[in-house]
Structure prediction request, 651 residues.
Amino acid sequence: MRSKRMTWVLTLTATAAVLGVVTLQSCSGAGRGADVSAIARARGLTEADIVAAVKTFQPTGKMDEYLMFGSGGHSGQVVVIGVPSMRLLKVIAVFTPEPWQGFGYGSDEHKALFENARMAGHDITWGDSHHPALSETDGDYDGQFLFINDKANPRIAVIDLRDFETKQIVTNPNMGTNHGGTFVTPNTEYVIEGAQYSVPLWTDYADVDRYEEDYRGLITMWKFDRDRGRIDEAASFSIVLPPYWHDLADAGKGPSFGWAFLNSFNTEMATGGVEDGNPPFEAGASRNDMDYMHIINWQKAAEVAAAGNTRMARGRRVIPLQTAIDEGLLFFVPEPKSPHGVDVTPDGRFLVVSGKLDPHVTVYSFAKIQQAIQNGDFTSTDPYGVPILDFNSVIEGQLEVGLGPLHTQYDNRGNAYTSIFLESQVTKWSLDPLAVVDKIDVHYNVGHLAAVEGDTKSPDGKYLVAMNKWSLDRFNNVGPLLPQNFQLIDISGDEMELIYDMPIGVGEPHYAQIIKADKLQPFEIYPEIGFDPSTMSTASDAVQAGEERIERRGRNVDVYMTAIRSHFNPEYIRVREGDNVTIHITSIEQVRDATHGFGIAKYNINLSIEPGESQTVSFVADAPGVFPFYCTEFCSALHLEMMGYLLVSPR
Ligand code: K7E
Ligand code: CUA
Prediction:
C-alpha cells in the first residue's frame, strides 16, 4: 500500500492552478488582500489540509450535495448532517422527548405517540437507536420516509421526511431487544426488525436453565403502508428463530429480491453466569468457529402468514419455527466467527459477511445459495431442524481485509469498503477480482461506514463516512466522556483521502445512510393553515383568524388560540384550580421560518408551532397561581412581548 505520510510534491501555487480557485501567493481581490499561503503557514496547514478544506468548505448560503441521517445512539434521536461540509443541520426527536421541537412536552399528539411506545407497563423516554433506513423504491432511496430501531426497548420509529418529524413508534413485545433493524425491502414493502438477545417466547417467564427449550429468537417483518405513512401492525408478522443471538440483517434486491439475510452469534447457546464459575457470555458465545447466516424467504413467509399459518404471541402474528422449516422459509449457512454486518452488493448477486473474530470478508453467491436450496443440498440441520447449506459450495470467495472487519459499503466502480475495528482502518477492495485495493487509517476504532447511497442498487461513490467509536486525541478535552468522531473520506479517486473530522457529542451513533439532497422534497411551511403533522391533514380543531375564543363546559375549558407575530390570541386564560384545560393553537403564519414556541411556566409544557401548524395541549390546572406563557422561539423584534397569562384561581 502507499505510504501514509504523503510527501507534498506540489507547490501551493501549483495546487492553486489545478483547483483554479485562487492564486495562493497573493489573493488581493479574492479575500480582501488575504494571503492564503501566509495564513496556511501561520496555522501550520499542509498542502493536504488546504485541499481537504477546499473539498469540504461551504460558503454561506451554499447547500450540501448530500444529507446524512445518522442514528443518535443512546440519545434516542437521529442526527441530520450535510455532506461534505459535515454541518449538523438537525437532531430529529424520535425516542426521547426534545423541547425545541416541542416533542413530548405537552402536545396531545405526542402523548398518543409515547403512549403507544410504552413497554412492560413503563413510560420509555429514551432509546438506543442504531440503524436508520431510508425508504426505497426499486432498490433506491426515494426520500420519503426514514425508519430507525430502538435496540434497548425493541421498537421501530417512522419519520416522515416531508417535515422530518416522528410519526409512529411501534413496540415488539416478543423481543427482549432488537438489533437487526431497520432495513427495508426494495420497495419498502416491509421494514425488517431482527431481535438480538433471545428471551422466552411462548411463556412470559422461564429461568435461563430453560434456555434451549423456552427462549427463542425472532425476526419481524413490519408491513409499511406508504399511503398512510404508517406501519400496519395488524398486517405485520414475525418468524420464530432458534434461540441464537441475532445481529444485523439486510434485504435482497434484484435477483435476491424477496429474501432477507440475518446474522447470528452465540449459536453455542451459552448462558453465561460467570458468578457461578461458568465461562462469561463473551467466551461462551465465541467458542464455535462458525455461526449461522439466516436466509429467509420473506415473500413466501408473507403468503404463509396471509394463509393464516400463524399463532398469536402477545397479540402478534407469529409463524412458528416448525412451520418456517416445513414451508421452506428458513435456511442456514455457516458464517465465520461472530459475524457482524451482512451487506448485499448493489447488483443483489452477492452477500458480504464480516466475522469480527476472522480477518476475512466472506462473499456468498446468492445464485449458489438458491441452487443449493433447490437441490436440497444440505449438510445437516441445527438442533431445531433448520437445514444448513454447505459453506464451501455457496461462497464466491474470501478475502483477508484486516483484523476485526465489521461493516461493508459500496461505490459505483465495483469496490467495497469494509470497516476494520481492531486496526482502525478502512479497507477498499474490489469484488471482481477479489483483491485489496487501498487502506486508510481512521481515528479510532471504526464501527459502521456510510457511503453516499452506498447500500442502494446505485451507489454514488463520492464520499464515505467512517463512524469511529473513539476520538481519543482528535478534539479538545471535554472531560472523560468523549465525543465520537465521524471522519469524512473522499473515495472518488484511486486512493482514499481523509478530509474532515466531525465530533458527535449527543450519544453513540452506529449507522447512517447518506442520500442525494435533491431527492428530498420537504415542506417549507405546512401546506395549509391548521395542518396537523400527526395526521398530515387538516386538524379537526384548527383555529382560523377571527375564530379565537374560550369555551367552558363545567370544569372543561377549551381555548381556541391563534399565533402570529407577535401575539397569541387570546392572551388571558382564566380558569379555576382543577379545571381540565385544552388549548388548541394554530399558527396562522405563512412565512417560512416564522416559528412560534408556546411554553407555560412551571407546567412542563412547551410546543413548537411551525407556520400553518395546529397543535393541542391538554392539562389539569392543578396548581393555582399566575403563570406567564410566552413564545419560546425568537420570532420578531417584539418576540418578548409575545406572551400571555394563565390565571388559575384557587378553588
Ligand atoms: Cu456495528 Cu448496532 Cu450496526 Cu454499533 S452496530 S457499530
Ligand atoms: Cu413568536 Cu417569539
